[in-house]
Amino acid sequence: QEKSSRLSAALFGEDCEISHDQLYELLKYAALGKRHNATQPSWCRISHQSHLAGVVVIVLHEMSQLHFYKFYLQFRHLRKVFRHRFILTPSTNFFTSLYGEGANLKPQNTAQGLTSTGSECIPKNSDLQCDPIIRKYGIKTQGLTSYILTLEEQRKNDYPIKGSPGCKGYIYTECDQQRTDSSPLFGLDCEMCLTSKGNEVTRVSLVDAQGQCLLNELVKPESRVMNYRTRFSGVTKEMLLPVKTRLSDIQTRLKEMLPHDAVLVGHSLNADLQALEMIHPSVIDTSLLFARNEGRRFKLKFLAKAVLGKEIQCEQKLGHDPAEDARAALELAQFFIEQGPAKVAELNLEMLLTTEKLAEDSQNKAALQPQRCRIQKQLNEPPHLSKPCFLDCLQVTGQKPVLLGRQGLDSSGLCQSNLSTSNKQILQRALEDVPLSTFSIIQFSLGPEYIASHLLALCEQVRSKLTDMLTIYAGPFEEGFCLHSVKKEFGRCGPIQSLTMVPETYQPYVCIHYEVLEAAQLAVESLNGAEVAGSCIKVQRPVTAAMLDCDDLIKELELDVENEGVIYVAGLKKSLTEMDLQEEFSQLKDLETLFLPKDLQSGKHRNCCFLKFQESQSAADALEVINGWTLKGSKLRSRNALASGHLWRWIWQMNHSNGKQGGHILYEKMEQLSDSEQDLRKKVKKLDHHIKKLYRSLQNNTLCVVLFPGMSSRHGAQPGLGLMAVKDDGGRSA
After folding, report:
1. Which residues form the RRM domain (predicted)?
2. How far is CA 349 from CA 36, 138, 228, 265, 354, in A?
3. What is the CATH number of the domain that holds 167?
């Protein structure tokens, strides 16, 4: 059964705010994989990246997190499919921050655009004919015997050969059995020191085809050591003092360990065999396998990073690890044999090496300018380090990216893309072109008439509605009631931002403003009709036109795929630490993550937490257990989560930002917005339908990322929002 790619991320609290560098990190790895000098992102994880069918990025031009929650009910598809969400900081050059600088995207004619067809994804054979790898091995994939060095190649590259005058006294492995494409591969690497005799072995490593280390021994040289070469070998005088193993012992062990049809793999393996004073008839040398022009050779460190995505021979380590080097050489040979010369040639290693050297030169130049760096730091402008455009790497391997956008969006950065006049046209092109490409960026827009001019009013509407949803009124109470008792009882539902008396009513009422949505909802559900401070009270939210759909909104938030398997727990004592809670809740089945919110200014923990479970049923079972549970003398209350991830953080920021922006301009803009509200809702609903249609057309195992880029204006910055999922067989996210 084919493996499915999966996306996992723990986006709670501070971890849910993602920078553009982190987003670039994700898209680069998803597009190129570990074999193309990219690494697994630090903030989330893609399992089985090589099984991804493609990457699709949908950008909603000049829209922000504000728009997603203003039109939350209209974005039905987005909230039901995209499980993973994060806050995205606004960027002045959004598309460059997405895929890097220096894109060399070759423009095509208007009819064709920057799209690719099935035949275009694979470079023509004629384009590869001048590659040294193709010239040496041809295009077809072959078995391992095709890459074993011939006797002439061994002689030319200074390999020890049986019967050769310079190999007198060398030990022959006696592995004379006929080699086949099923013969076992073994990786071999040695570290040497300089002695009065020349190069002598100080450490030997042998790994099998599965990467298991069979031998990793220190060896005491026979002659006096002149230079331990510790910087490269990692071997010191102190390490060799207790060692009894000699070269003859290693020769015997290797001879015994290798089967008669063994094929040895190494990088410049001739030097290792010469130092071992051993002769082996069948070898694959990765320094020659990955052929270059004019007899030059790639270093093992570069090949491991560019082809395998592995960092070896790191500067932090003392010397090389021969087992690590042997394993890297072996995996390189296995990759070459499995993928074939054409796939290796498509990696365009020469270009990657040039790019790497340019990046190193750039960093070296930056290091030589400390004064400039200090000045920039004083100006609060850190030195700019450009990110290489990974779309160029895709084009080099024949995988032309699809870039589709809308005309008139001058700031889009998609100047070389195929621009259309409407979202419908963009969708039609995307349905045709996206399934044929491995990387696509599709840009939709509501239109400039609906965005910039209404931002301030939109912000005030959302802020006002959130405030109302976080607010409850409770009463009536008896004259002279105990306010402290009321605060204590309602505080068991969650953190309270403010509690005030309502002066306008005949009987005493209180207004309570909570910090989290779940607390306000819990108060309505559990305390309405209850006896508090000696009175049977009613608990309700403010009644306004904007709040008429509050119950629908709460229900949809509860069903939101992001909140699936997540519950909210309140009534915790503030003295309890995260470790205490982990211990207390450890008995709950399938508990995956515990998130303890804290005040983003003081850093103090609140009296509530969120628990995320692997299965929805486990969350439902936990709710039954926790409700009424007494923990350290405090009675707990819980319910399904409404705003467990990025929304919790955004609500806190909205709650603690400056007050309402008044003035006649705001009222005029709100009136204008009200006039076009229905039309705008229809457009958002249609946009959501476009995304749904495009998502359904994607192949299974496609990573889809939807981005609300965020906005910066004279009225302030609005953070963006990212939603991501890997499409599975059911059309849902994985």
Report:
1. 565-643
2. 9, 17, 33, 21, 9
3. 3.30.420.10
